[in-house]
Hints:
Elements: H1 2-10, E1 14-21, E2 25-36, E3 45-54, H2 63-77, E4 82-85, H3 92-100
Parallel strand pairs: 3-4
Antiparallel strand pairs: 1-2, 2-3
Amino acid sequence: MAATFASWLQDPARLVVVAEEGGRMVVGFAAGVVLQGNGWQIPARLGRITDAYVARPRRRLGIARRLAGRLLDLLYEKGVGTVRLAAAVQNEGALAFWQSMGWSDLETVLERAVPVEGRDPEA
């Protein structure tokens, strides 16, 4: 993860915010990116929240809400017209969190395993 953070911090399109405890221990982070859209299906400048995490013992204390709020402010300052994110449908906690902040469904992405010869992917 350290290498990933280092690459994000060097990328001018990337934004990273962290929550610290005691000025030394990171207890959460949120990351996003500014993307160029096509102005039709995707706004000309699209913000995307790519990652958000709070350490389990620090959850339900408002940390994620503050991280997301700060990240959104930074994305808006970069001139994005819309911000999107993806959350796994099985992650009910994440879905409830984002919905509580005013996010709503945009599309449904379906997935199916590639069949392997001699094996039924549904088995």
